[in-house]
Amino acid sequence: MVIQNNSVVSIHYHLTDDSGNQLDSSGERGPLKYIHGTKNIISGLEKALTGKSVGDKFKVSIPPEDGYGVI
């Protein structure tokens, strides 16, 4: 399956800061599930996931304007 709009997506993730310190992780909670293309996650992550397939592993850096905004 390729991730596209209106796909139900389930991902494991590790969120780190610029220094590599872990801030959050799906870890023991289990994967994050959402419907792709409906703005349920930050736009930068949604863009990075578009076109990925089951089993793909990758790292992505998301600038503030594609995340929660500039502070």
Give the class from helix and strand content and strand pairing.
mainly beta
Mean pLDDT: 95
Distance between the termini: 37 Å
Number of strands: 4
| Helix percent band | under 10%
Give the strand order of the largest sheet, numbering strands 1, 2, ... along the chain: 1-4
Describe the main β-sheet briefly.
2 strands, antiparallel
Number of helices: 1
Topology order in helix (H) and strand (E) letters: EEEEH
- Which shape, going by the Cα principal axes? globular
Strand content: 15-25%
What low-confidence regions span 5 or more consecutive residues with pLDDT below 50? none
What is the C-alpha radius of gyration, as a whole number of Å? 12 Å
Q: Can I get a quick summary?
A:
This protein is mainly beta and 71 residues long. The protein has one helix spanning 43-49, and strands at 8-11, 14-16, 22-25, 32-35.
